[in-house]
Amino acid sequence: MVKNGWELLDLRVLCAVARRSSFTGAAIDLGISVAYVAKRIAHLETVLGAPLFLRTTRRVSITPSGQTVYRWARKVLEAAEELDQAVAQVKDSPVGT
User: Fold this and answer.
1) How far apart are CA 45 and CA 4, in angstroms?
2) 48 contacts: CB under 8 Å, gap ≥ 6
3) What is the model's pLDDT at position 8?
4) What is the spatial distance between Cα 72 and Cα 78, in angstroms, rounded to a whole number?
5) What is the crossing angle of helices 34-48 and 8-20, to 10°?
6) Number of helices (H) and strands (E), helices first, in the chain?
7) pLDDT, tens digit, 9 for 90 and up, residues 35-54
8) What is the DSSP secondary structure assignment for residue 63, as one 8-state letter?
9) 97: which residues sit within 8 A by CB, 6+ positions away?
10) pTM over 0.70
11) Can you tell me whether residue 49 is helix, strand or coil?
12) Pairwise CA distance, residues 18 & 53, whole Å
């Protein structure tokens, strides 16, 4: 088993911040606190060993490493959604004679 140190939630948070270019906007979209958004991004940056966003008092911009992670995060989240849908279809299928 591969232990990567990050969770799907971290990828969701990263995508929300990248889309909104804002920790506050991401927090609103996800229904979580700005502090939790910052904590998840900081954790992801630590685990991956690269800064994902440049932060100033006025704006947040994604770094080249952040762009790479964002592209992969979207693929991973799409695959996770497809998995959920596939399992839901199997669950709803009749079983037996």
Assistant:
1) 12
2) 6, 65, 69
3) 93
4) 10
5) 110
6) 4, 2
7) 999 999 999 999 999 999 99
8) -
9) none
10) yes
11) coil
12) 8
